[in-house]
Amino acid sequence: MALDTRTERRPSFAGLLWRSTVGKKTAMAVSGVVMLLYLVAHMMGNLKIFFGSDEFNGYAHWLRTVGEPFLHHEWFLWIARVVLLAAVVTHGVAAFQLSRRDIRARPSKYVHKKPRQSYATRTMRWGGVILALFIVWHILDLTTLTVNPRAEAGHPYQNLIASFDRWPVTTLYIVAMLALGLHVRHGFWSAAQTLGVGSAARDRVLKTVANLLALVLTAGFVAVPVAVVTGAVS
Amino acid sequence: MKLTLRVWRQRDADADGGMSTYDVDGISPDMSFLEMLDTLNEELILKGDDPVAFDHDCREGICGACSLVINGEAHGPERTTSCQLHMRSFRDGDTIDVEPWRAAAFPVVRDLVVDRSAFDRIIQSGGYVTAPTGAAPEAHATPVPKPDADFAFEHAECIGCGACVAACPNGSAMLFTSAKVNHLNVLPQGAPERETRVLDMVATMDDEGFGGCTLAGECATACPKGIPLFSITKMNREYVRAARKGRR
Amino acid sequence: MTSYTEYATGEPVADRKAPEGPVADRWDTRRFQAKLVNPANRRKHTVIVVGTGLAGGSAGATLAEQGYHVVQFCYQDSPRRAHSIAAQGGINAAKNYRNDGDSVHRLFYDTVKGGDFRARESNVHRLAQISVEIIDQCVAQGVPFAREYGGLLDTRSFGGVQVSRTFYARGQTGQQLLLGAYQALSRQIAAGNVEMHPRTEMLDLIVVAGRARGIVARDLVTGRIDTYFADAVVLASGGYGNVFYLSTNAMNSNATAIWRAHRRGAYFANPCFTQIHPTCIPRTGDHQSKLTLMSESLRNDGRIWVPKEKGDDRPPHKIPEAERDYYLERIYPSFGNLVPRDIASRAAKNVCDEGRGVGPGGQGVYLDFADAIARMGRKAVEDKYGNLFDMYERITAENPYEVPMRIYPAVHYTMGGLWVDYDLQTTVPGLFAVGEANFSDHGANRLGASALMQGLADGYFVLPSTINDYLARNPHHDEITADHPAVQEALAETEDQLNLLLSVDGDRTPDSFHRELGELMWELCGMARTESGLRKALDRIPQIREEFWRRIKVPGTGEEFNQSLEKANRIVDYLELAELMCLDALHRAESCGGHFREESQTPDGEAERRDEEFSYAAAWEFTGTGAAPVLHKEDLVFEYVHPTQRSYA
Predict the structure, then answer these.
(1) Do C270 and C439 touch, CB atoms closer than 8 A?
(2) DSSP characters for C463-476?
(3) Which tops the pLDDT comparison, C300 or C379?
(4) What is the C-alpha separation between A174 and A179, in angstroms, rounded?
(5) N vs C: which end of chain B shows fewer Cβ within 10 Å?
(6) Cβ separation of A105 and B124 shorter than 8 Å?
């Protein structure tokens, strides 16, 4: 009987969380919040593009020198990358495991279907997959420059413009950012519930913040390719 | 009223099931949905067919036995139990689909009857206060602030019907579990077992094969007793708190 | 075979367990006298408990806590669904938190008087004593009773008593108390002390060498019939109100467990004592499958009336004040709309019989809140009765704030049941009955908010103390096995009956018989009974029974989930129990409590008790289906509460 064994051992906090659905959701919420904070910073950095190539490239260079001399060159960046990678992996693995479990928990569907969930809720799963694929492509495009034929290391401003000059890339980017908006919209509110911050009294505030975040992030990220395509930035 | 019913028929847990179509006539709008099914069953018996099996008992919306998915919605279009749904909620000539609760943790027993014993096992794993008979202190020894008592009551109203699981796209039992966790955890009487209760009940819920919560909110919409979605939020908070503190 | 009505009177029965001495000391004395079972030996004793309502759930949990091995049954899919869950009003306890003069003695007095002097004083006094412990116990379990702003428990007055002693949890007190018991039981199931069999129905009692040693039960999912053995059997299977087909009982509540125990030798006491509740939602047509109660607290502010003229079918608001008959206020000026349940019910029946009833079929009276809304304002009415008004509207689609509610009496509770002594033991040694299944505490009429009190008193406190004594004196070292002749006989009878039901293959459904019997009982053994009516019913019931066995149609087989078979099998017992109810009602040629014989009334139409002839509990012994039973009288002695005629005029 589950009751007996569980009273004996004393699992670690992380172990306990990872083993249960509620705990795994907590891991997703925390990793989601980490990524969300990063996205806000990332978006603000992106907007520097509107202040010209020097400012943008200077900002990119600064990112590599943050924390010096305490940190070695690029250490800050690598720490951030490791944290982000951990967040993405945690988020993705938890989502995968939970989704598989959820699908198993409802093996047969109703004959009479009644779709009623909100768009954002329904798009969490495949939206997440789109975002994961996008991240891979995004890194290959603008970090490693593997799929950006005209790119040159050390010139992020020019690389970015080179990338967005290709209309399929721009389209893909914009679609991904719309998916991001939807994901953040439900994800932020959902994370608040998972972390136990929500309540009837606070719900309006949380929903408003979720909508605002989704809107600002999408608009902020989409502004760059739009500016490139329209020639506002070149 | 004259209606066409499409009803899920399944001989037993192992058999394959499918929808069967029946016409019923002479239905009064004052009938409850279950009385309409009674009418159908009387006809089926006289025709020599097997009547449709469905769970029901008190027929006043409190025992939680009735469990029909009507036109894709747990307990049908009104926010009440199947037994308190009346035929006046439908129109003459309607086609109505009737299905059992569907979830891996609620296997079909026959037709519209499912096995909800997983709920009992969730309660058995911690949905109680350890207070053996005779050991109770005087009732007024521990005053309970009225807001806490009301909060406990609102969650204790759960009738364990399982509509939350039936409505959830993930077949999750979070609303059911959280209702009991919140009822007992807010009360001073439930405090000594506050951490073990939530940890064990969630563990059992997972072991029983219920899905996780994606906060779709369908459970709270279907709940005939109006247990709020924030009940889940509150339990999440209790869970993280308990995991952090560990068992005492 | 002699005619059913020519019953013999056998040896009187008497309770020999309640000790002598002052009534207030008897429970203590009994507990001290009772032999105990060594805690280490308790797990060697198996106790079967049938039913998981307030009485059964609390008994199973408590016995398991004491260390006994409990094997428990319920026909529902979960022990949490027992019909105790539907009780609305509250639970009485002599806590005297209001300092309004309440005491154990006053609760005792009120209950004996409310029961119209047909209950046993020792039992009722014990009930009143235990009432205070029940509240403590339930609070400790986390039952969310209503509380005041200071954090202390709230109480209200209920059912025509002058003190405020009813504890409640909104309109769902039964639910909350039941869930408390269910949770306590769940803890014992998890600990392995209770072996729970849901969806399993008891179909017979196994009696070996004169002692109850087990039951025959059918798994309702697979149809498998099994035997279960124990050192004692506790029946907590509730009342038998479903004999009437329409009642406030749950659809599947049934009398099979107690009736089959009666057939095996347990006396059935006061079967005719049934309570008819005045404020139920009237039926809307022949399709009606059950009736829904509305809390009688509505009578505190609502006014009951019918049109003065027969057949006045104008809508209520078109009937001018002068043409309305507020009949309760007219006939009972001092109590008005707050007369006890039986009186209010009978008065409603009378005006409807006169053709002045309202609503479909003329089976209803108005319960009007127009004056209350004018006096208190709609908001205040909403605060007080909002949930009840919502429930009424959901069922009837009428808005009671604008149109007066329609109410009609309905069968609600059965005071009669298996005869038990002070230890709650029936006349079959080792067979105990608790809660509504026994006859003990309410006499001829139960007071509001007392059913929950009795169920929990029996289950949490009384039975777990008294059953020790039986088990200590009867250690049952002999194993019973399935091949014992008594076991084989019980098993064969059960199987034969089910097979017979399946083989008739007639042309009438189980429900059609149940409905026919119910209508007959409601008409002739309901709110008002006459000798001629009862004789007519006693003629008719054997005919229905004969027709049942000729024309019943039960589809399917016995080896599967078969709800028609369950139903038909219960009707077999109703068809026998109904006969005994009518005979009991016929023999009791007096009016008392819920039993009103038209021949026995005062000049102003009130119930007239005849203490010199009928101050006893009638315990009937079974002698065969359709055969005259034997009457055993238990004389009732009133040392503390002296019988008086009730008057509410």
Answers:
(1) yes
(2) HHHHHHHHHHH---
(3) C379
(4) 9
(5) C
(6) no
Selected catalytic residue, list C42, C341, C529, C545: C341
A37 CB neighbour count, 10 Å cutoff: 11
Average pLDDT over residues A182-196: 95
CB contact under 8 A, B243 and A13: yes
Residues of C in contact with A1 (CB under 8 A): 190, 192
Whether the full predicted model's pTM is greater than 0.90, yes or no, is yes
The ranges assigned to domains in chain B are 3-110, 116-245
Pick among B170, B172, B210 to test the A interface (most A CBs inside 10 A): B170
Domain boundaries, chain C: 277-412, 485-613
Nearest-CA distance A34 → chain B (Å):
18
Residue-wise pLDDT for C3-20, tens only, equals 999 999 999 999 999 999
If you average pLDDT over every residue of chain B, what do you get? Answer: 96
What lies within 8 Å, CB to CB, of C341 at 6+ separation is C159, C275, C276, C277, C278, C296, C445, C448, C594
Q: Domains of chain A, with CATH numbers?
A: 23-107+118-230 (1.20.1300.10)
CATH number for the C485-613 domain, one of 3.40.50.300, 3.10.129.10, 3.40.50.2000, 1.20.58.100? 1.20.58.100
- Residues B161-195 have pLDDT tens digits of 999 999 999 999 999 999 999 999 999 999 999 99
CA of C189 vs chain A CAs: smallest distance (Å): 11
pLDDT tens-digit series, residues B218-247: 999 999 999 999 999 999 999 999 998 875
Q: How far apart are the first and last CA of chain B?
A: 61
Alpha-carbon distances of B12 from B108, C26, C27, C561, rounded to whole Å: 7, 54, 51, 8
B215: left (phi > 0), else alpha (psi -120 to 50), else beta?
left
Residue keyed to tokens 């008992």: B57
Please name the residues between 1 and 40 in chain A that touch chain C, using a CB distance below 8 Å: 1, 3
Rounded Cα gap, residues A221 and A226, in angstroms:
9
Say what the pLDDT of residue C592 is: 94
Q: What is the pLDDT at residue A2?
A: 41
CATH topology of domain B3-110: Ubiquitin-like (UB roll) (3.10.20)
Angle value at C-alpha C138, between C134 and C139, nearest 5 degrees = 115
Q: Which residues of C345-361 are buried (b: 16+ CB within 10 A; e: fewer)?
A: bbbbbebbeeebbbbee
Top CATH class, B116-245: mainly alpha
Closest CA to A102 of B103, B175, B123, B229: B103
* Sequence letter at residue B134: G
Residue that is written with structure tokens 């309770």 in the block? C15
Q: Give the model's pLDDT for residue A116.
A: 62
Task: Tell whether B163 lies on the interface with A, counting CB pairs under 8 A.
Answer: no
Among this protein's residues, is C341 annotated catalytic? yes
Task: Give the pLDDT confidence score for residue A5 in this predicted structure.
Answer: 45
pLDDT band at A234 (very low <50, low <70, confident <90, very high): confident
Cβ atoms within 10 Å, residue C102: 22
Whether A10 shows a pLDDT value over 80: the answer reads no
Residue C159's pLDDT is 67
The predicted pLDDT at position C606 comes to 83
Chain B touched by C557 (CB under 8 Å): no
Token output for C163: 């003190």
Torsion of CA C560, C566, C572, C578, to 10 degrees: 180
> Which residues of B fall within a CB distance of 8 Å from C142?
128-129, 131, 152, 183-184, 187, 189-190
**Lowest-confidence pick of A83-97, B202-216, C227-241, C372-386:** C372-386
Assign a CATH topology to domain C277-412.
Answer: Flavocytochrome C3; Chain A, domain 1 (3.90.700)
In eight-state DSSP terms, residue C458 is: I
Q: How many helices (H) and strands (E) does chain A have?
A: 10, 0
